[in-house]
Amino acid sequence: MQPKTAQLKIDDKEYSLPIITGTEGERAIDMRNLRKDTGHICYDQGYGNTGSCESTITYLDGDNGVLRHRGYPIEQLAMFSNYVETAYLVIYGELPNSKQRKAFGHLLREHSAIETQMQRIFDGFPKNAPAMGMLTSIVSSLAAYYPELATNNFEKDLEHFDLAAPMAISKIRTIVAMIYRYRHGLPFIHPRDLPFADNFLHLMFSDPYVAYVPVPEVTNALNLLLLLHADHEQNCSTSTVRMVASSGANLFTSISAGICALSGPLHGGANSAVMHMLQSIHDEGDDGTRFIAAAKSGSKSNRLMGFGHAVYRNYDPRARIIGTACDKLLTRLGKSDPLLDIAKNLEHAALNDEYFLSRKLYPNVDFYSGLIMRALGIPTDIFTVMFAIGRCPGWIANWKEVATNAKGRIYRPRQIYIGAVKRDYVPMDKRG
Ligand code: ACO
Predict the structure, then answer these.
(1) What is the pLDDT of residue 418?
(2) Is any ligand 1 atom within 6 A of the Cβ of residue 350?
(3) Structural domains of the chain, ranges and CATH numbers in brackets
């Protein structure tokens, strides 16, 4: 029988704190009244051991390498579902029936275009503007272009949620393709009446006279890549979305904040860092052996990118799926990639090396996601914005949880102040 309360003793006073248990048996000590009852706050730098919310969306067990959305194992979703269906599941909590799936797909197709006035935003950017910088600005402008869907009033915004959610996913997909074309000096292409992933490939690779012809292997690999990024519990960008939403902010603005958080190299930027690492190993004529030796030095600048994770102490289940898919895709397309061979050497060496084993460092999703994007013809400079398309359903579902939580409060952590104690203002002529 598990205890229902935890006892906390401060000096000679004892406090009883309730224990909360999740549906998968995760246990937490409820600290909400700690300050009121004891005058103390919890100190947990970076919130690494803090449950900031209760959520019904995603279950993650990092020690055992388990990831489930709405109860469904990621392995099953990867095998049987596709990105759009999984997006619906993550957002609405249940797999869609055929009518719901059709209606959701219809909204995605209907709202895929970017209006002419909004397209003019692109001209304000230099041709070499970083893709993530462009994406954050353009996505935050959705709140200005569609103010009726983004009122910063939860009640009203929720009335329009069934439109705003697919609109955000579809438009962000189109914006990403436009960013690619803008940066590469290509004219914008109008979306077509195609399934989600094929429409993206058309927006990227068609030219005004020759339409992109869908290749099933490529479509399936893209669907898988996006599906595997659909949600990942309270990561940095999702927590940011929830934090911004907790102030009452609308869906588009909250998503745009999430994209800002995704841009850092420790979060969404790791996929391109992996590719740069593999390329430099290749260019130096190393098969990975020298790099592995350097990665064990403990220096942050030599880390084996795509290895280790803030919560997984086991194989990231997404990495396993994507690694196998990458192999299959290259075989089906009759291609080979020397960088994939280096990645496999690195993985094999690290998984047999005491340094990595004892620290529980295993491949994370980014170890192979860049390689699959490369096989799809997606250039490294837009890898992180691709991640943003994939993660949209998770951000949307988390925004909705905040917006519908009647007992929710604004996210407002506290701090331990360690600065100067009170002192009196010193006039300029006395400052020395
Ligand atoms: N290569 C070599 N050594 C590593 C690596 C790595 N990739 N990651 C961690 N270590 C070592 C550290 O040097 C440390 O060693 P020590 O105990 O001798 O000091 C030990 O492992 C623990 O490292 P921490 O930094 O405490 O691990 P933490 O869990 O805080 O960091 C992180 C996780 C940031 C992901 C880290 O593993 C890393 O930098 N990995 C490479 C970057 C990467 O792939 N990021 C993508 C994450 S997935 C995502 O966001 C989608």
Answers:
(1) 97
(2) no
(3) 5-51 (2.20.28), 73-268+382-403 (1.10.580.10), 270-375 (1.10.230.10)
